[in-house]
Write a structure and sequence with these properties.
Largest sheet: 7 strands, mixed
Number of strands: 9
CATH class of the largest domain: Alpha Beta
Oligomer: single chain
Structural class: alpha+beta
CATH superfamily of the largest domain: wza like domain
CATH architecture of the largest domain: 2-Layer Sandwich
Distance between the termini: 115 Å
CATH topology of the largest domain: wza like fold
Order of helices and strands: HEEEEHEEHEEHHEH
Radius of gyration: 27 Å
């Protein structure tokens, strides 16, 4: 009877210990080099006061609790994570840190909910448009355009070619504007022309009747 009892007690004691193991969390691409404007989702297991969203400022710095300013410009996600681990290890033992980058992208043009979005760089450009409510009936998904600092970038956004690619692979980065343009000539345009013509004809008939 002693062996089963020992096994039972061992299982009870091991359960809570196993439950305290750090969770497995996706950390994005560890080789991605951080840029100003990026938003970093930082998680320190068991330490909520050191977890949260932190933005890389225009000088490439991240303001982090206790550790202060960290120069993140050109650091990869893995290098920045190791920097945090080194700093936090002076405060407590074996910190488990995950860093997940996010891009700040503005979606404009013919979408239902234009605005600024903080997005996962592993999404596709069509996913980003979907976050903005999707294209309007007159939006042209085959001619999506990318702007950076007011200048249009030469990036192919044809729907067929970007369907399987992430925005990071295409070259989109934080601070960019993704614009869904209006189609060249739509049914709404035709209806508007017909309406204007009808109004013009009605006005002409009214004038001729008065005269």
């Amino acid at each position: 009877m002693r062996a089963p009892l020992v096994t039972f007690l061992t299982g009870l004691l091991a359960g809570p210990l196993l439950a305290q193991d750090p969770p497995i969390v996706s950390q994005g691409s560890p080789s991605y080099a951080l840029r100003p404007g990026d938003v970093l989702e930082i998680s320190v297991w068991g330490r909520e006061e050191y977890s949260g969203r932190f933005q890389v400022d225009e000088q490439g710095r991240v303001h982090y609790p206790v550790l202060g300013e960290i120069n993140a410009a050109a650091l990869t996600v893995a290098e920045f994570r190791d920097t945090l681990r080194t700093g936090l290890s002076r405060l407590f033992t074996n910190p488990f840190v995950t860093v997940t980058p996010r891009f700040r992208i503005t979606v404009l043009g013919e979408v239902r909910s234009p605005g600024l979005y903080v997005v996962d760089p592993t999404l596709s450009v069509l996913d980003i448009v979907a976050l903005a409510g999707g294209a309007t009936p007159v939006g042209n998904l085959n001619n999506i355009r990318l702007f950076r600092s007011g200048e249009e970038q030469r990036v192919s956004f044809e729907e067929a070619s970007v369907r399987g690619q992430t925005i990071q692979q295409i070259g989109v980065r934080s601070g960019d504007q993704v614009m869904v343009p209006r189609r060249g000539f739509t049914r709404q345009d035709l209806n508007m022309i017909l309406l204007i013509a009808q109004i013009g004809l009605s006005v002409a008939i009214f004038i001729s009747t008065v005269n």
